[in-house]
Amino acid sequence: MASSATSLTTLEDEVSCPICQAILREPVTIDCGHNFCRGCLTHYCEIPGPDPGEQPICPLCKDPFHPGGLRPNWQLASVVENIEKLKSAPPSGLGEDLCEVHEEKIYFFCEDDETQLCVKCREALEHRTHTVRFLEDAADPYREQIHRCLESLKNEREDIQGIQSREDQRIQVLLTQVATKREKVILEFEHMCQFLERQQYLLLTQLEELDGDILKQKDEFESLVQGEICRFDALISELEEKLERPARELLKDIRSTLIRCEGRRCRKPEAVSPDLGERIRDFPQQALQLQREMKTFLENLLFELDCEPALISLDPRTSHPKLLLSEDYQRAQFSYKWQTSPDSPQRFDRAICVLAQDGFVGGRHTWVVAVNPVHGGSCTMGVVNHDVRRKGELRLRPEEGIWAVRLAWGFVSALGSYPTRLSLEENPKQIRVSLDYEVGWVTFINAVTQEPIHTFTASFTGKIFPFFGLWGRGSSFSLSS
């Protein structure tokens, strides 16, 4: 503590007034560069000299100066103010940091070395040419930097919290969808199990009837065959006996015997009647209903697990003049001949596209597009933001608010940041487009084979519209739910 007090006293001596020997008050600088209290110097100048017209001289170096040329020394005034603050600060024994080298209180900060200094450190040779400021003065710019950093970090934290909130909502939507799908799967399979049990009973009953009819005809067949065998045994015995008799007895009634034996023809009975054979042969046809029901079950299950069907119509207000729309707005065809269409802010003027009349701001929706791109033509489909560009060149990519695929030259391409040709088992004729607004999915599926084509992931904020494009004479598409 004694050392700190000594350092502060030394610092006070450096900023003391040579006239009053106290700390400078409103310090001013005269022509020779020495500093004095404004009041002390004014009072000094009022003391008359030996020659009334002679200029006053500096009390220290005796150089003359002009009384009217006093210059306030604001930097020195700031130093004096900081010394006053240091004098009013609590003593160093109450938790203050001391210089590790001189064990004196720290007053300064070297901006070149970014080091805190005491009075003795400040006078050291290595810091004499450096920019040294009082701690509070040096801390102000850093406080401003810290405030800017805090502002930036808080903004980034808010962004992350916004992402977390959005993703939490997506997770909840997905969990709800999974729970709904689980209920639908259980319900559909319960119905299917009941149907299968009924079908099993009916098919087994028919098989039991067939089994009984086969056994019945088997008994009838065996009885018939046994009767025939007995009759043939009797004739054979009669002829064998005839052969053993003398000629006179053999020739007796020989003609009648031969006629009776030769006229006897073997009946060829069938173990299974034609009617029963047809019933056995046609039994697999009884399973056709089961096959149809299973197909219907799978279609219904896929439908229940998919999105809600959307009844959409094309919007003629947005249609490019080279598109021919059907009267029910369910079909469009490309034409090189421009249609007479009034220009409007909603209409595409360069991109040969058209939007649906209604958009979506939530929910899960699906629609089917039957495509017919002729050789050299193309069909494009997907969804777009409500504020998609209508005038001038239109870049089909997610950055422009467009999520779409294109069929051209027998290939399907996903129109991402860069178009990507997709590898598919077959070229789709019908494509199912599904939009899950909350989760942010745009899914494309082959509506015939159910083969997945592509899925975009996005974050939707405004209204989303179904989107369609065509190119090439004769190219067309039609809509269905």
UniProtKB/TrEMBL annotation:
* Residues of the B box-type domain: 94-135
- For whether the record's keyword set contains Metal-binding, the answer is yes
Q: What is the lineage of its organism?
A: Eukaryota, Metazoa, Chordata, Craniata, Vertebrata
UniProt-recorded Gene Ontology molecular function terms: ubiquitin protein ligase activity; zinc ion binding
Q: Name one GO cellular component term.
A: cytoplasm
Annotated B30.2/SPRY domain ranges read: 292-481
Xref: Gene3D superfamilies: 2.60.120.920, Classic Zinc Finger, Zinc/RING finger domain, C3HC4 (zinc finger)
Q: Which UniProt keywords apply?
A: Cytoplasm, Metal-binding, Zinc, Zinc-finger
User: What compartments host this protein?
Assistant: Cytoplasm
InterPro entries reported for this sequence: B30.2/SPRY (IPR001870), B30.2/SPRY_sf (IPR043136), Butyrophylin_SPRY (IPR003879), ConA-like_dom_sf (IPR013320), PRY (IPR006574), SPRY_dom (IPR003877), TRIM/RBCC (IPR050143), Znf_B-box (IPR000315)
Location, primary (coarse class): cytoplasm
Q: What PROSITE patterns does UniProt report for this protein, alphabetically?
A: B302_SPRY (PS50188), ZF_BBOX (PS50119), ZF_RING_1 (PS00518), ZF_RING_2 (PS50089)
Indicate the segments forming the RING-type domain, all copies. 17-62
- Whose protein is this, by species? Monodelphis domestica
GO biological process, any: erythrocyte differentiation
Q: Does the keyword tRNA-binding apply?
A: no
Matching entries from PANTHER family are given as: E3 UBIQUITIN-PROTEIN LIGASE TRIM
In its UniProt entry, what is this protein called? Tripartite motif containing 10
Tell me the protein family, please: Belongs to the TRIM/RBCC family.
